Amino acid sequence: MKLTLRVWRQKNADADGAMSTYEVDDVSPDMSFLEMLDTLNEELILKGEDPVAFDHDCREGICGACSLVINGDAHGPERTTTCQLHMRSFKDGDTIDIEPWRAAAFPVIKDLVVDRSAFDRIIQAGGYITAPTGSAPEAHATPVPKPDADLAFEHAECIGCGACVAACPNGAAMLFTSAKINHLNVLPQGAPERETRVLDMVAQMDEEGFGGCTLAGECATACPKGIPLTSITGMNKEWLRATRKAGKR
Amino acid sequence: MTSYTDYTTGAPVADTKAPAGPIHERWDTRRFEAKLVNPANRRKHTVIVVGTGLAGGSAGATLAEQGYRVVQFCYQDSPRRAHSIAAQGGINAAKNYRNDGDSIHRLFYDTVKGGDFRARESNVHRLAQISVEIIDQCVAQGVPFAREYGGLLDTRSFGGVQVSRTFYARGQTGQQLLLGAYQALSRQIAAGNVEMHPRTEMLDLIVVDGRARGIVARDLITGKISTYFADAVVLATGGYGNVFYLSTNAMNSNATAIWRAHRRGAYFANPCFTQIHPTCIPRTGDHQSKLTLMSESLRNDGRIWVPKAKGDTRPPAQIPEDERDYYLERIYPSFGNLVPRDIASRAAKNVCDEGRGVGPGGQGVYLDFADAIERMGRKAVEAKYGNLFDMYQRITDEDPYEVPMRIYPAVHYTMGGLWVDYDLQTTVPGLFAIGEANFSDHGANRLGASALMQGLADGYFVLPATLNDYLGRNPRLDEVTGDHPAVREAVAETEQRVERLLSVDGDRTPDSFHRELGELMWEFCGMARSDSGLRKALERIPQIREEFWRRIKVPGTGEEFNQSLEKANRVVDYLELAELMCLDALHRTESCGGHFREESQTPDGEAARKDDEFSYAAAWEFTGTGEAPVLHKEDLVFEYVHPTQRSYA
């Protein structure tokens, strides 16, 4: 296949960026999208040009590093991560636009690489269960009903890639934040910190400059792990419950 | 000039620090004998932890909980992305919840035997003991393990064992365990006990007066090279499988931290012990950048076969049952498809070498779920393996519910690593290595679901106990500052290396060299090794290295985000480490575990160990780039599990 790529190039956080156009030949349909970019970069290096910077690591769809907006869609046309997108999803002669995640809370570092440390700070605000090493009771001491365990798992699958934020017209991080809250709050082990967790994480989310939710639903559509939109409703319920409880104290 | 193959043998490793006495009491003994550090004094100690995977993440969190000041690094943009996240299958623990005859002693026995009698008994027994605490710890953190309808934990069996002791979270066990450690670490970051430096890569170790006292690291965004000082340094930087270019490792997983530490005095043990995983998706072409694992748990229900006839190119559905060779079930009737990884990989290679491989280039075997779907129903198969099947379909464009999967072995894990004693301390005092970065527990072959167990055992439980002892015995080390000659030298060397990489301005990319080296290693130091092949590789590697420094092209500058520079810098270290791997493989003229020497096999083609000559861990001392290293042997004594030729028939 022969393709035309229009790629966002930006030297660093302070520089202005612009789209640059590149032609790539001999693209095999079995290539992953990132392998296609690898071949472009090999050519650019040999021509003495700066290769396109992009985040990637496991290339198995689980580390959450890769983060490209492809033809306007976070992670491109398939419901998967960019690294698991293959060129068979495109056809010969296509023009493909490649941009970084775009959100106020994710500033660009270079080209297609953005700073997602805001996500780490949301987790630091309460996305954990306080269980210092050595303090744990025997694992079978507290049975967890299978439906609860499965529900927790469904939300725990979030890979923290940020596609939900990139897809959201408001740049909201509701789906990311709610996934962690639902994961931990549904488990008996997470119960003691149930209220502080949701209040602190939501407060941090707001402080990081993420937008609010208007139920556009783009986040759940873009999520490569299928975190459902109802996750956000679950978080809102937890937040209301915690707020009411805090008011009574 | 001496050739690299003219290594010399130095003094044997004198003391592993493993206590004497009955094996089940040794860990208690060591912990009791270890010096403690008063909680009030702990905050006066700084500990550097490099890496945030299962080992590093759990160690950083636990040391900070204990009150130490932790300064931690990862090259990724977030500690949550360390490659432990990609582990699929599960984590072993001797809970015996199934009442199927499991015990700490059996897990210990299975691990020593699975490792083909090349691991240290004391360490392995400790690992088995700690395994049960790990599950408790992870459940308390909210790790959503798979559960039965009664609300209790589910387990499954894994290659190389006959009990069901593997705890799992669908096909994402590594992800869930890592997020547990990451969340514990996040709590400590928020509390101000851990100073976290993401997107920062360690480029050298600082050794002052014979002790590890800090690191040189590069900020990957600004390119700034800085020094960080501490009372002890912990490397949790993973394995070196990416030497092979194509592996199941993450693209940026690298050997720089451990190799730089080796150059500064830490012995490197058993570098040739690499694990080739039997169930990976075969490569599709030259563009291939990495290989993807299909969890070994698939071997529980999938059946592996190839056509009986050579060159049979019919689609699998058209090959009748009696023309299929379920070769693992045929050769190893009692373990069948669940033989250990090294055996399954080599068997796949053998049938492909015979011309019976399937798929493009004949480099593949079938992993067939037709029977499982008939027996359990498609829904049950979906529930158990759904995400793996989806991943397979996405990569290959084939539906594994309809057509058998095609799999082929790929480099997956490295059992070798920095030599450590029972305390997980390297030969450089104050430098510790944990998780895959060390060599300690898996011998010549790691059993499935044991990497996660070892990473978390080291990080949550072992290191926090043994590091106390080191700091307790060295309560007041002199302060190190940037003007110390050792520090200035380490910084200058790092800066010179970066400048040199940028100044060659040749005509080959870092990837082209990495690919060339990887192909060489896969051919001569992969699934089967021979004297002549290894000598060829040892001749070729210095030539590639020389060419590298003549022709490498790295665009841009060092004072910016520069992924080509990062890559080139890692390749420099692969080009040295590869040579040591080949030498180690050449010197070990026996076959054991993942190390198969063509000259040493039984009449049936199984690996033949030579216990009289090679019952030792080979710890290599660095003497200079391209210079013959010095071999130090740690004799392995088997008091509890007596070496036998492994049999899985």
UniProtKB/TrEMBL annotation, chain A:
Annotated PROSITE patterns: 2FE2S_FER_1, 2FE2S_FER_2, 4FE4S_FER_1, 4FE4S_FER_2
UniProt superkingdom: Bacteria
Matching Pfam families: Fer2_3, Fer4_7
Organism the protein comes from: Streptomyces prasinosporus
Database matches in InterPro entries: 2Fe-2S_ferredoxin-like_sf, 2Fe-2S_ferredoxin-type, 2Fe2S_fd_BS, 4Fe4S_Fe-S-bd, 4Fe4S_Fe_S_CS, Beta-grasp_dom_sf, Helical_ferredxn, SDH/FRD_Iron-Sulfur
The family this protein is said to belong to: Belongs to the succinate dehydrogenase/fumarate reductase iron-sulfur protein family.
Designated name of the protein: Succinate dehydrogenase/fumarate reductase iron-sulfur subunit
Cofactor needs: [3Fe-4S] cluster; [2Fe-2S] cluster
Domain 2Fe-2S ferredoxin-type per the UniProt entry, residue ranges: 1-102
Domain 4Fe-4S ferredoxin-type, chain residue ranges per copy: 149-178
UniProt keyword list: Iron, Iron-sulfur, Metal-binding
From TrEMBL, chain B:
Species name: Streptomyces prasinosporus
Keywords: Flavoprotein, Oxidoreductase
Residues covered by the Fumarate reductase/succinate dehydrogenase flavoprotein-like C-terminal domain: 514-648
Stored Gene3D superfamilies: FAD/NAD(P)-binding domain, Fumarate reductase/succinate dehydrogenase flavoprotein-like, C-terminal domain, Succinate dehydrogenase/fumarate reductase flavoprotein, catalytic domain
Residues annotated as domain FAD-dependent oxidoreductase 2 FAD-binding: 47-452
Protein name: Fumarate reductase/succinate dehydrogenase flavoprotein subunit
Region feature Disordered, mapped onto this chain: 1-22
Coiled coil: none
InterPro entries (UniProt xref): FAD-dep_OxRdtase_2_FAD-bd (IPR003953), FAD/NAD-bd_sf (IPR036188), Fum_R/Succ_DH_flav-like_C_sf (IPR037099), Fum_Rdtase/Succ_DH_flav-like_C (IPR015939), SdhA/FrdA/AprA (IPR030664), Succ_DH/Fum_Rdt_flav_su (IPR011280), Succ_DH/fumarate_Rdtase_cat_sf (IPR027477)
Stored PANTHER family: SUCCINATE DEHYDROGENASE 2 FLAVOPROTEIN SUBUNIT, SUCCINATE DEHYDROGENASE FLAVOPROTEIN SUBUNIT
